[in-house]
Design a protein that fits this description.
By secondary structure, the chain is of the alpha+beta class. The protein is built from one helix and six strands. It has a six-stranded antiparallel β-sheet with strand order 4-3-2-1-5-6, with no helix packed on it. It is globular. The N and C termini lie far apart (about 25 Å). The mean pLDDT is about 95.
Length: about 80
């Protein structure tokens, strides 16, 4: 499943190992996610930082990133992010 196809309420695992819940039905390079980290916060997350999603049965699957998201990730890496 592509990150653009993740629906509100989907559990995700981020690149840094934290978990969250998708908070919007958006598309593009950022998604709104309620992240459970040091604190629980809702905010923008780069789509290329979403690595896995959980299906209704509780199984985890890798997400696919769009060409645009991968290009944006490379640009961010080139700037040292």
């Amino acid at each position: 499943m592509k990150t653009n196809d993740l629906k509100k309420g989907t559990r995700v695992k981020l690149r840094n190992g934290w978990f969250g819940t998708v908070f919007d039905n958006g598309r593009g390079n950022t998604r709104m996610v309620t992240v459970e980290g040091f604190e629980t916060e809702t905010g923008s997350v780069y789509a290329h930082d979403i690595m896995e999603y959980q299906d209704a049965q509780g199984y985890w699957f890798a997400v696919e990133h769009t060409e645009s998201q991968l290009k944006f990730q490379k640009q961010m890496a080139a700037m040292g992010w």
